[in-house]
Structure to design on (518 residues):
């Protein structure tokens, strides 16, 4: 098990942390954190998936027990109103309140946090992740975090010594490791706090109306400032592993120092690069510029999302609708390679972790890209019609016997209808292109209807070499895509013609040539 794949490299950090396993046979604790201040997007799901890959690798290496905690920071005060939710005015009126005290703008759940937590859990459950969901509000109000809050109060000055040098001068004046909840407004306050009795949890602060308030920091009457909260959570829950985005490198360092002050040991982990939208900007929950989980699953399969997330975690990657088709096809390519790979390559193949070592053996007779080209043609944005072409191309297939193929056809229809068809526009062929198309039509007329895709591809190549020269074959295929399919990119034409049918393909050529003569 010397695989260099990143989940195993991460798992070996945990082997060094606990060479003999955790004391008393306790499970190793993996954690992911999530702030429900906006609708969950794939970047949110990303942490759970990648952490699960490391968890599985560790279990493969050791056989030791593990747990995964998905933690929601839902007692944070709402700092800004997200751009992509309704009832903006209502949210504006609740700024500063804990997210579990902010009404749900969708009117479906107890609070905004409950709505977003439910969305996340639904998606994680759909994927079959093994996790335990924890709410910060529950941990604070139930008293579960009281012991670690007491440690924070006892170590107040030491924590201030870590944090103050990292802050701007104006922020230092109001900074406090503990954020009291106003008894009057219910808002989480960013105000200086005086520790009156650390053991009893008693603090004092000036409320929004200027009155001096003495109250407990326990039982949900206060929460911890972000980096202190992170450290306290690690200590309270005995967390051994948590990854974070590259933008939180400094936070990890400071929280690690605070965790040690509180008598704990910071978890292992690594920093991944951020996802970017199609404009190269960082994805943000409040902006709503990322893909939603539902959007990916309308156009791409569940494993294709996990595949995209697995690869190159330390490289910034675009995350938008346009990446889905390629991710689907690459997933199937890697899955097809898996059975014949040696063990070391299998362990480095993303599908090994995606399927927890139990990789399905079914294969597809067509690619997602090829299906997209098919269902983008006029009148083919229909799953049942598309199936007729597939069944002629791959006899013996059916929606019942190939459920994954059935799903993929439906996803391709969705993608074509929503994004491809509206932008398709076939151009007129040039005279040279028209001559080549006539030759192609003549050749296709001589072929049997069941001619293999590779044999058709050979004929397409030969005609291209005759009219464009071997060095300009790319121009030939570009012409086929643009004049027949209305797209700048396309499939292997032999495969497409075999799937669409020789007679139907000849009709496409006739339509292109008719526009020239007209």
């Amino acid at each position: 098990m010397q695989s260099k794949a990143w989940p195993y490299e991460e798992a070996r950090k945990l082997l060094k942390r606990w060479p003999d396993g955790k004391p008393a046979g306790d499970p190793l604790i993996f954690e992911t954190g999530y702030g429900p201040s906006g609708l969950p997007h794939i970047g949110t799901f990303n942490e759970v998936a990648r952490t699960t890959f490391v968890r599985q690798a560790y279990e493969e290496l050791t056989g030791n027990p593990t747990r995964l905690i998905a933690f929601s920071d839902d007692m944070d005060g709402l700092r800004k109103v997200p751009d992509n939710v309704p009832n903006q005015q209502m949210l504006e009126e609740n700024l500063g309140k804990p997210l579990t005290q902010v009404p749900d703008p969708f009117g479906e759940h107890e609070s905004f946090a409950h709505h977003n937590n439910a969305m996340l859990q639904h998606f994680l459950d759909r994927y079959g992740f093994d996790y335990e969901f924890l709410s910060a509000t529950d941990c604070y109000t139930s008293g579960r975090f009281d012991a670690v809050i007491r440690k924070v109060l006892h170590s107040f000055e030491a924590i201030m010594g870590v944090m103050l040098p990292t802050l701007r001068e104006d922020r230092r004046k109001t900074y406090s490791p503990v954020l009291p909840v106003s008894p009057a407004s219910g808002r989480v306050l960013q105000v200086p706090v005086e520790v009156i009795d650390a053991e009893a949890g008693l603090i004092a602060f000036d409320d929004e109306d200027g009155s001096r308030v003495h109250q407990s920091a326990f039982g949900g009457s206060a929460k911890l400032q972000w980096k202190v909260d992170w450290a306290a959570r690690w200590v309270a829950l005995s967390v051994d592993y948590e990854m974070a985005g590259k933008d939180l490198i400094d936070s990890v360092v400071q929280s690690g120092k605070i965790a040690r002050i509180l008598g704990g040991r910071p978890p292992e982990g690594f920093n991944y690069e951020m996802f970017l939208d199609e404009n190269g900007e960082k994805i943000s929950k409040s902006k709503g510029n990322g893909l939603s989980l539902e959007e990916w699953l309308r156009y791409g399969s569940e494993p294709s999302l996990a595949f995209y997330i697995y690869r190159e975690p330390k490289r910034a990657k675009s995350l938008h609708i346009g990446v889905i088709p390629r991710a689907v096809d690459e997933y199937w390519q890697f899955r097809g390679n898996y059975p014949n790979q040696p063990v070391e390559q299998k362990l480095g193949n993303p599908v090994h972790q995606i399927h927890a070592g139990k990789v399905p053996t079914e294969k597809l007779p067509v690619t997602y890209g090829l299906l997209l080209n098919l269902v983008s043609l006029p009148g083919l944005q229909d799953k049942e019609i598309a199936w007729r072409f597939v069944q002629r191309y791959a006899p013996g297939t059916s929606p019942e016997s190939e459920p994954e193929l059935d799903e993929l056809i439906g996803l391709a229809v969705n993608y074509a209808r929503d994004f491809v068809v509206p932008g398709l526009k076939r151009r007129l062929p040039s005279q040279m292109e028209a001559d080549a198309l006539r030759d192609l039509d003549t050749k296709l007329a001589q072929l049997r209807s069941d001619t293999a895709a590779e044999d058709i591809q050979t004929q397409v190549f030969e005609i291209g070499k005759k009219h464009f020269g071997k060095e300009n074959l790319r121009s030939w295929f570009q012409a086929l895509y643009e004049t027949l399919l209305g797209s700048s990119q396309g499939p292997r034409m032999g495969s497409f013609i075999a799937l669409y049918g020789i007679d139907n393909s000849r009709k496409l050529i006739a339509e292109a040539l008719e526009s020239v003569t007209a």
